[in-house]
User: Fold this.
Amino acid sequence: METESIVIRHARIIDPSRQLDRVGDILLGSGEILATGRLGLDRIPEGARVIDGTGLVVAPGFIDLHCHLREPGFEYKETIAAGSKAAAKGGFTTVCAMPNTDPPIDNAAMVEFIHQKAKQESAVRILPIGCVTKGRKGHELSEMEELATAGVAAFSDDGDPVYDANLMKLALTYSSDLGLVISNHCQERSLSCNGVMAEGPVATHLGLDGIPAAAEEAMIARDIALAEATGGRLHVAHLSTVGSVPLVREAKDRGLAVTAEVCPHHLTVTDQWVLGAKGAASVAAGGLAYDTSTKVYPPLRAQRDVEALIAGLAEGVIDCIATDHAPHDLTSKQVTYQEAAFGISVLETALGSLLQLVDSSKLSMAAMIDRLTVGPANVLGEKYADLASLQPGTPADIVIFDPEQEWIVDTSEFESKGKNTPLEGTTLKGRVVATIVGGNLVYEGPGLKFQEARSRA
Amino acid sequence: MSLSRTIDTPDIEGSLTSEPKPRKHVLDLDDFSQEEISAVLDSARSMKEVLGRDIKKVPALRGKVVVTLFYEASTRTRISFEEAGKVLSADVINMSSSGSSTEKGESLLNTGLTIQAMGVDTIVIRHPHSGAPYLLAQNLDKVSIINAGDGLHAHPTQALLDLYTVQDKLGSMEGRKVVIVGDLLHSRVARSDIWGFAKMGAKVVLSGPNTLMPPDLIRSNNNIARSGFASLVEVDTNLDRAIEGADVVMALRLQQERQHAGFLPSLREYIRRWQVTDERMARANPDAMVMHPGPMNEGIEISNSIAHGGSSVIEEQVTNGVAIRMALLYQVTIGPAQQL
Assistant:
């Protein structure tokens, strides 16, 4: 498809792939980035659309290693079409779709289905993730080479761990010549039992079964030992506890091929939110307690977990931020806390949440962008590096956002079918104003200003 | 103050103008002040007087409809609410999950909306899931909700009847030592009792196996933040020591499934360490009271002789339960009884 030329002028251009952070212009054409820097008027092609980037940040489009698009099988929760629009609205240009669909993505035909759907309906790039085990049942390895050849970007049985330790060992061993990472959902079920929220003071107060931190840490420790034993590539999905960070740090220090991700909600929201007051300190549970939109796996944890995860992310122990976007229908959440589905709809609030960390100086803007671009691309592997760069010649996958724009989260305006977020009604600062995929403007948000090509100062 | 047969509702409404907003729901005691608890206990005292009459009937809630919606088995709580409603002349409709549309898969929320649409005034709910009454309170705008026990979370009417029973015997609860023994982890009664006794100024001590203690209350566990309860209670797994000087000893029901789930090595060991016995009661204050929320496993958490001995107030708890539920039904359906 012919794409028009687009110029973004006077923006703060942040390209972590080149440690670049400066105000300038960026020129896109033929689906690629053509130039960045200070562009003279003569470099702007005739008929180009000119975006006024004053006050805006331009960065490589975000890459999400972990989201649930629910299709096929759960179209009442999310579809590839709606999920991809949500991704674009959130500034994501590439999303990895988890295979816990019905049927699961455990064979080449299913991968092809996702590719076809994506081609027809998606605004952003969708990389399917293939199952580690047939049917996600945890008994036999899926045909991992066939999946790899069909184009999966990684393997995972997400939603469930690869529970059998020997099977995980075999998966890491078998796939070690395929160049793809195995992302494991670390949950030792004999410890998480019937838990529905983090073990701790709020669970005690509300009488909800707690999930101990050890349920996550025990399996991460197991998987690291298996990665060491096999030389396989392990990616730890959604880290949530203070104790998980040093496990990953030590594995990296020993030179193992271990990477990790963390979700925006685990960096910004605590288990206090289950009390219903959006995290405000309160002695009583209050009428809004048991807010099922806070129910997620891994569970929201304590402030000290949040602090440790932010520090681990800033330090680089945690490679990247992944949304674990888990949209659900209303009915799955309008039940008791115990019955409610696990998951938060994250794609459209991720940036606004994460910029809180930048605003409070816990994470630099450049580091935040790195963990949303270069970080996840590195986990996927060399061939995806171009998706995380503004280097001329790479695909024109770009996010433009206004770090100062305040907005109130209103799920009725979500593109995602999943309205399940505890952030409903809260004010976030920082909003995507445009998303460009392969040179096409796939999302235009509030604050996007075009200039007349001829009348610019 | 007594309940007359000529309750005049318009007066009640008129007199409320300068008062704080009347309580619409009773979900837990965590949002009750000491004053509010005292007011409920005072109101229950006049209700108990009605229960002592030859003709136990006053028209206070005539024309009001109360539904008891029980998703779990119950004898005392359910009958207690039913009696309370009927003595106050409310129409009480009992609904249980078996035999109802719940068996056809109707959700709790839809059941609640259906009941609300029938013009019911108050729903009394018991549910195996913590927070179920909150789900109704958040989504039904025309009915009052009373929590008759939700999951592991709360049983506020039981706690209030416990407070009433203790106040009746001891007068003020300020500075009194209340020891709660047993499965604290799974006890909704204990959670509400802790709030209640602590708010009334009592010193609350918990005793039981560490495996049946909420993790944040285990003394040796420094790896986890403490809950609001932690500042309200002391924990001592040694019951012989915990019970010293106690004014109130409450034994909690030990569900025998807990042994199979691995929380206990054996009932025998539990009995040896935590059964409330004559020997142990000898360490408490001489006039100490023994309580149990029921139903009891005699011979497990409480010895037979203690359960039926002179220090036991277990039957009074049951009687007082009716009065407390009358007071609460009256309060959420009509308004604070002090206005009468």
About this structure: Chain A has one domain: 61-388.
